[in-house]
């Protein structure tokens, strides 16, 4: 999503791009979930899942009410901040992981609902926690699967899943 959304919003409105990416994310996550389920650490990330899900309705609401220009600025800002943080090698180990899950999970859900790019807060957080690669990938996959699955009904309720969204989703699915 961090690569796809900024490119697609050049050609399509964000209110079309975000639901398309969320629908397609469900397909991608399902494939990866089959490979990674055995490394999931649900005990560790359940608070992240709950707070992520809690952020989705507000994110979806923002997607519904924001104008196209503001959404494009938000998408650009998330992309640039995430890229700079990753390129700079930003590191800060968090001692109270469970407490930190609340803002990190909520931010991830908020960004998932509004931009389909909920990954940066979680990726930056976990990259600083020294978690084994397979466990990290499995936890990301579980979180992003849950957020994608919850986002779609929220987007249906917000009337964002439309005929054109379904057509674009079907057209882009093979890619």
Distance between the termini: 14 Å
Rounded to an integer in angstroms, the radius of gyration calculated over CA atoms is: 15 Å
User: What proportion of the residues form beta strands (DSSP E)?
Assistant: under 5%
Chain-averaged pLDDT: 91
Largest sheet composition: none
Q: Describe the oligomeric state of these chains in a short phrase.
A: single chain
Count up the helices.
Answer: 8
Helix content: over 70%
Order of helices and strands: HHHHHHHH
Structure, explained:
- With 175 residues, the protein is mostly helical.
- It contains eight helices and no strands.
- The chain has helices at 4-11, 14-36, 42-65, 68-87, 97-115, 119-127, 133-157, 163-172.
- The two termini are 14 Å apart.
Q: Could you write a compact summary of the structure shown?
A:
With 175 residues, the protein is mostly helical. It is 79% helix and 0% strand. The chain has 8 helices and no strands.
Fold blueprint:
Layout: H1 4-11, H2 14-36, H3 42-65, H4 68-87, H5 97-115, H6 119-127, H7 133-157, H8 163-172
Helix pairs in contact: 1-2, 2-7, 2-8, 3-5, 3-7, 5-6
Annotation keywords:
single chain, 175 residues, mainly alpha, 79% helix
